[in-house]
């Protein structure tokens, strides 16, 4: 295990639902990331947090809302999603080195 | 535009055989190039990290090479095992510590 956990591992939701993805890192890192991984496409960086402050938002639609209450926890709040938002959502963390440690991901299906 | 292209898109080999995965990039400048292994249903795990000045880096049966002149990297897997079946992702860290991901090569090792 990489020291980064994500829950739930699988999520099916309707377009009118509101749900949240959770990420927790046990590595003492100060940076956390949300990525979207769609089939046969490169990982897309969504959000970056450094010391709980959002430092990057890659033009992500407002139906995705991140929250970082402390440097160990990261949430992604979802509402009124579209079917094209179905993907694997990966959380990662890092410290000083360039290496990022990824969680196992949440497989999201939007009906 | 910074891009990372990987080939082949997918590959099937027999257990015990060697294989080489390719990564061509246009990212410039870059500080390091990484290869990740991603098992089905899991997050990516780092295999090798090379700085722009390194030519080769090994991790057990995995050997990564980097040719900065031709802007190519390869990942060579020796004596493949069934557990090598996974997606292999090439990633470059460019300006501003931004990561540029390839779409990955899906490797299947069969007995």
Oligomer: heterodimer
Return residue spans of chain B where pLDDT drops below 50 for at least 5 consecutive residues: none
Write down how many β-strands of chain A occur, each being a DSSP E stretch of 2 or more residues.
11
User: Average pLDDT value of chain B?
Assistant: 95
Basic shape of chain B = globular
**Percent of sequence in beta strands of chain B:** over 45%
Q: Helical region count of chain B? A: 0
Proportion in β-strands of chain A:
over 45%
Describe it for me?
The complex is a heterodimer of chains A (111) and B (111). Helix content of chain A is 0%, strand content 58%. Chain A is built from no helices and eleven strands. In chain A, the strands form two sheets. In chain A, strands 2, 4, 5, 6, 9, 10 and 11 form a seven-stranded mixed beta sheet that branches. The radius of gyration of chain A is 13 Å and the shape is globular. Helix content of chain B is 0%, strand content 57%. Chain B has strands at residues 4-7, 10-14, 19-25, 32-38, 45-51, 56-59, 62-67, 72-77, 86-93, 99-101, 105-110. In chain B, strand 4 and strand 5 (45-51) form a beta hairpin. Classes of the chains: A mainly beta (111), B mainly beta (111). The interface between A and B is medium-sized, with 17 and 22 residues.
């Amino acid at each position: 295990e990489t020291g980064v956990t994500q829950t739930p591992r699988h999520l099916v939701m309707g377009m009118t639902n509101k749900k949240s993805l959770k990420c927790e890192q046990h590595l003492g890192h100060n940076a956390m990331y949300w990525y979207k991984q769609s089939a046969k496409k490169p990982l897309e960086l969504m959000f970056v947090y450094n010391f709980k402050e959002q430092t990057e938002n890659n033009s992500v639609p407002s139906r995705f809302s991140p929250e970082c209450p402390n440097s160990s926890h990261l949430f992604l709040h979802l509402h009124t999603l579209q079917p094209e938002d179905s993907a694997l959502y990966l959380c990662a963390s890092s410290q000083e080195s360039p290496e990022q440690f990824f969680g196992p991901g949440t497989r999201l299906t939007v009906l | 535009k910074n891009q990372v292209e990987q080939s082949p898109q997918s590959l099937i080999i027999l257990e015990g055989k060697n294989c080489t995965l390719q990564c061509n990039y246009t990212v410039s400048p870059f500080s390091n190039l990484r290869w990740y292994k991603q098992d089905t249903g899991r997050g990516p795990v780092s295999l090798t990290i090379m700085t722009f000045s390194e030519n080769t880096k090994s991790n057990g049966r995995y050997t990564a090479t980097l040719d900065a002149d031709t802007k190519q990297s390869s990942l060579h897997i020796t004596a493949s095992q069934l557990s090598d079946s996974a997606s292999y992702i090439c990633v470059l860290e460019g300006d501003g510590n931004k990561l540029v991901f390839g779409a990955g090569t899906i490797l299947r090792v069969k007995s």
